[in-house]
Design a protein that fits this description.
By secondary structure, the chain is mainly β. It is 9% helix and 45% strand. The chain folds into two domains: 132 residues, Beta Barrel (Lipocalin), CATH 2.40.128.280; 161 residues, Lipocalin. It has an eight-stranded antiparallel barrel. Strands 9-12-13-14-15-17-18-20 form an eight-stranded antiparallel β-barrel. Strand 19 and strand 20 form a beta hairpin. Helix 1 crosses helix 3.
């Protein structure tokens, strides 16, 4: 088997952990994507239990979920992104950004079996088996921004929300100083929801699929259990609060890219259109939301990425 045979996106059909109390942690009909990008040597993997209900949260802000909802979300999602290599019939994933903080920097080895359009990944100890079907290419619409200009993998530079309005200026006066979460940009208060040193990747491929992962830097490891499904409620909630991930099809319309998540750690994203305004240079991609009014403040989310491939 070679790298090119795995190129592209694969859809999850089975996630089985035979020796676990939860043999099928994502149910009998899981949702998942596995995307290999051989030019960069990166892989993204995400899995989720289907049919998750939306949660009630102010302004549909994932960071404002209750601790209980965050803990529940942690029991229905799994994901990471990082580099990968081959050793014989074994593929080794090296997570750099992962939902389970204990997995960051910890290689994950899977035996590969490819039969036509079906890929099976199994751990050597037999504790995990996943089965994937090659995803069919999707048609991506393009107008101003050429589709191929987005294809590839991008590394996070910064993620922040800029605020405009009386309450935002009052907020700055109250704090009266910069912090790891609050600073100024062009005289407007700016907040960093995942800190100023957040890490992340976003991947677009020619099949029409995208995958995004963002996490806080220096997240604490789980100590109550190595498996996030068995961790304490507090640790599950903390892991969810410091991580964001979703994946699905994408389309391009004029100067906008529309992400259409079919899986997400934050369940409210699933089935929605996440519209992002594109600003693109040779080496940098900026994705911005349109300003939204929340509690008297105009809020714009901005994510800046740099091209890896």
């Amino acid at each position: 088997m070679n790298l090119n045979q795995l190129t592209g996106t694969w859809e999850l059909t089975t996630w089985r952990q035979p020796e676990s109390e939860r043999e099928y942690p994502f149910g009998s009909d899981p949702v998942g994507y596995l995307t290999y990008h051989p030019e960069s040597g990166y892989v993204a993997l995400q899995a989720m239990k289907s049919g998750r209900p939306h949660v009630s949260v102010a302004h549909d802000n994932y960071l404002w979920m209750s601790p209980e909802d965050k803990a529940v979300a942690a029991e229905a999602f799994f994901g990471y992104v990082g580099q990968y290599t081959f050793q014989g019939d074994t593929v080794i994933h090296k997570p750099e950004v992962a939902f389970n903080p204990n997995w960051v920097g910890r290689p994950q080895a899977y035996r590969c079996h490819l039969a036509e359009e079906t890929l099976t990944l199994s751990t050597a100890d037999g504790k995990l088996q996943t089965i994937w079907q090659r995803a069919k290419p999707l048609e991506s619409r393009q107008q101003i921004v050429p589709h191929n200009d987005l294809v590839g993998i991008w590394k996070l530079v910064s993620i922040y929300t800029s605020m405009d309005g009386f309450l935002s200026r009052l907020l700055w006066i109250i704090f009266d100083r910069e912090s790891s979460l609050l600073t100024k940009l062009k005289d407007k208060p700016v907040m960093y929801p995942h800190g100023q040193n957040a890490r992340g990747y976003i991947m677009y491929n020619e099949q029409g699929y995208m995958s995004a992962h963002v996490m806080n830097a220096n997240r604490p490891h789980l100590v109550t259990a190595d498996d996030i499904f068995q961790a304490s409620v507090q640790e599950k909630a903390q892991a969810t609060h410091t991580y964001l991930s979703y994946a699905g099809p994408y389309t391009i319309q004029a100067d906008q890219v529309i992400h259409q998540p079919t899986l997400s750690l934050f369940p409210n994203f699933v089935g929605t259109d996440l519209v992002r305004i594109i600003k693109l240079t040779d080496t940098q991609l900026t994705l911005s939301t349109r300003p939204v009014k929340a509690m008297g403040v105009l809020v714009t989310a901005v994510i800046v990425w740099e091209r890896l491939t």
